[in-house]
Amino acid sequence: MQALFQMEAAGQGADRVMREFLTYRIGVEDEGGSQPEADETLFSRIVDDAVIWQSKIDKATDRGLVAKWPIDRIDPVLRALFRAAGAELVTPRTPPKVVITEYVRLSQAFFPEGRESKFVNAVLDHVARELRPDAFPPAAN
Length: 141
Description:
Elements: H1 2-10, H2 14-25, E1 29-30, E2 33-34, H3 40-52, H4 54-64, H5 76-89, H6 96-110, H7 116-131
Helix pairs in contact: 1-2, 1-5, 3-5, 4-5, 4-7, 5-6, 5-7, 6-7
């Protein structure tokens, strides 16, 4: 998510940002201590898929947002979160409910005081149902 945010904020390409994260940020020890470990393969896949599928992810996210607030107008941290989650939802590797749960938790880390986690949950539920309808049973009558 931070890599996607940096790509947009600094206008940097995916390859450059991934190299920076893999070389200087993930699992590297610095004066502040050791940076967190990460699954480098998963990290690269999420960034690559977010770039490859960005248009599809953004369109699905737009349909989950209020009409007056398209993805281009929302907070850039939330935009990066939706794109990272969308990258995981666009492929059937991880169950959608797991993706939603993990990204709601992540939103709580970035917005501990706000209502963003409920917003993220609602939007990602919509996106997941659009991108992976096969993962959701039909509603009972």
